Amino acid sequence: MPLNRRTLIAVSLSVTFALAPLRLTFAASPAPAKGEHGMVVTAQHLASEVGIEVLKKGGNAVDAAVAVGYALAVVYPNAGNIGGGGFMTIRFQDGKSTFLDFRERAPLAATKTMYLDKDGNPVKGASLDGYLAVGVPGSVAGLEMAREKYGKLSRQDLMAPAIGYARDGFILNQGDAASFAGSADRLAKDPAAAAIFLKPDGKPYGIGERLIQPDLAASLAAISEKGTDAFYKGAIADAIVKASGAKGGILAKPDFEQYAVRELKPVTCTYRGYEITSSPPPSSGGVIICEILNVLEGYPLSYLGAGSAETVHVMVEAMRYAYVDRNSALGDPDFVDNPVSKLLDKAYAKDIRDKIDPFRAGVSQDLTPKGFGESKETTHYSIIDDEGNAVAVTYTLNGSFGAGVVADGTGILLNNEMDDFTQKPGVPNLYGLVQGEANAIQPKKTPLSSMSPTVVAKDGKPFMVIGSPGGSRIITITLEAIVNVIDHGMNIQEAIDAPRIHHQWLPDTVYVEPFGLSPDTEKLLAGMGYHLDLADQTWGQAAGILVGGKSLAEIEKGGGARYNGAIDSRAASGEALGY
Ligand code: GLY
Question: Which DSSP symbol is given to 365?
Fold first, then answer.
């Protein structure tokens, strides 16, 4: 039979699928940063320097994480914060681990229907803008608990760099300036926020200009001197409560007085012999990453190849099933009985694999549970110290610059984390997540999160520290970085930079970053029934560390740098710093 072009393509495709991994060529990534004693990777270069200096001075990874947390609140105000909340996963050098939940809680006066109008429909913007969107902040209590229980240095030592940058200012680089420019209209709506983040002419600060935040310096100095009471029981809480009352919010002094950090057992699972330690509920992150990894463990991803239609197919189907569970079954563990052990069971993953058609896309509507009605601005940092203590922190204001409000005199931007609750079952939130009753609003309840600060270990030793911002996509961003290192052999920088895909059950769409898939792969997937959204934007800003080499191959060969750090090339002002 004479071979025409069409036959050749068919032959070459089938040979490729049968015999060898289909490789996608990624643009080259820069080399990861190297260090022998410690590594700090954050989304803002000055904060990375703060963390490294703490390590050099004898602080451990928790000390560095606390100092970085305060520094980012000053030099990365779109997401770094003391007016929001977050999670810290710690894996100690002896192999033990813990998890601090300092996420926001709903105010005592919150109600299930507080964002609905009289007809039961969500009021546009009510859970996103202004004081009604604000959850009770947890960052100060969380960072201080971490320092007191697991750090070595004084609060004053760890807060001094942040106070300095707030008092004396810092010079904005291109990435910093871009974040201000993108939110200028929103910040202009609150006079106190505008007075800090916009120039007197109303324009955002530009590249090379200095941002000085004297009110924030004073708030940080009060916390440094008096501890958490300065925030939760003193003038700062009074100022926030006063502004909230005057501007349509419901925050009250008892909300602040009753705020408590929870120390929880992290979620753990194994993937191809690696031990994953990540965030438990009230995050969905760790559970859903583990559920997806358990499903993927049954497929030869390394053989199928990064970016191949077959790899994308099984990844998307695993994501589809796991996000149904995320959006319908999980919530704050003080309010909801989370089916964590079922979702982490390898037998449950096998049941999911059995339902995945090897040749066709699934249909999200068919998975709707009975009775069920980006981002953007979170930030993640990864740190490891000379002793091998690894810390992963993801904390957030939720949207960029949170609710866009600052109580007069405090300099503190407040979060809009209340949008992470279900406003109304079946109605999408900021991240397009369609959620259910388990995540309904209740007083003192914490909204379900996707934040996934994760540490991976191998043979009892730290192997990888990883996490990212990205709203509902945090889970798939973190997952893909892990799979890229373990299954596809990428180095840590390549694993983080590689184009991403995302699926979250609803909408039933596969989001693909620019150049994420080759045109023929797109055609193959469309032929299987997938609806692809070829996004013109990237998402996420992962921050990762790999221990023992920059890639699995280098680790196996021996002789690689002890610590290898990578900040996402999408993070314009971030830096990985080792020493
Ligand atoms: N605010 C984003 C998250 O917690 O998932």
Answer: G
DSSP 8-state secondary structure symbol assigned to residue 439: G
Q: Is 13 exposed, middle or buried (0-12, 13-18, 19+ CB in 10 A)?
A: middle
How confident is the model over 270-278, as a mean pLDDT?
Answer: 98
Cα–Cα distance between 454 and 202 in angstroms, integer? 40
Please give the average per-residue pLDDT across 219-248, as a whole number.
98
Q: Is 368 a catalytic residue?
A: no
Q: Which protein residue has the closest C-alpha to ligand 1 atom 1?
A: 398
d(CA 555, CA 560): 6
Domain boundaries along the sequence of the chain: 5-35+264-371+451-578, 42-262+376-439
Mutate to test the pocket of ligand 1, among 127, 430, 474 (most ligand atoms within 8 A of CB): 474
pLDDT for the residue numbered 1: 31
pLDDT of 10 strictly over 60: no
Q: How far is the CA of 429 from the centre of ligand 1 (A)?
A: 11
363: DSSP letter: -
Q: Is the dihedral of CA 90, 96, 102, 106 positive or negative?
A: positive
Q: What is the CA(199)–ligand 1 centre distance, in A?
A: 30
User: Ligand 1 pocket test: which of 380, 431, 452, 477 has the largest number of ligand atoms within 8 Å of its C-beta?
Assistant: 431
Chain centre distance of CA 73: 16
CA distance 361 to 359: 7
pTM of the model: 0.94
Atom of ligand 1 nearest to the CA of 398: 1
**97 contacts 69 by C-beta, under 8 angstroms:** no
- Residue 380: partners with Cβ closer than 8 Å, 6 or more residues away: 43, 392, 393, 394, 451, 453, 467, 468, 469, 474, 541, 542, 543
DSSP-assigned beta bridge partners for residue 526: none
H-only helix segments in 153-284? 155-168, 174-182, 184-188, 191-197, 214-226, 229-232, 235-246, 253-257
Asked if the model's pLDDT at residue 11 lies above 60, the reply is no
CB atoms within 10 A of CB 18: 7
Ligand 1 atom showing the smallest separation from residue 285 Cα: 5
CB-CB contact of 102 with 143 (8 Å): yes
- Rounded distance from Cα 420 to ligand 1 centre (Å): 6
Kindly list the protein residues whose Cβ atom lies closer than 6 A to any atom of ligand 1: 378, 396, 398, 420, 449-451, 471, 474
Q: What's the CA-to-centroid distance between 548 and ligand 1, angstroms? A: 31
Q: Report pLDDT digits (tens) over 168-208.
A: 999 999 999 998 888 899 999 999 999 999 999 999 999 99
* CATH superfamily assigned to domain 5-35+264-371+451-578: Gamma-glutamyltranspeptidase, small (S) subunit (3.60.20.40)
From the list 42, 89, 378, 410, the catalytic residue is 378
Q: How far is the CA of 398 from the centre of ligand 1 (A)?
A: 6
Count Cβ atoms within 10 A of the Cβ of residue 490 and give its class: 0-12 exposed, 13-18 middle, 19 or more buried. buried
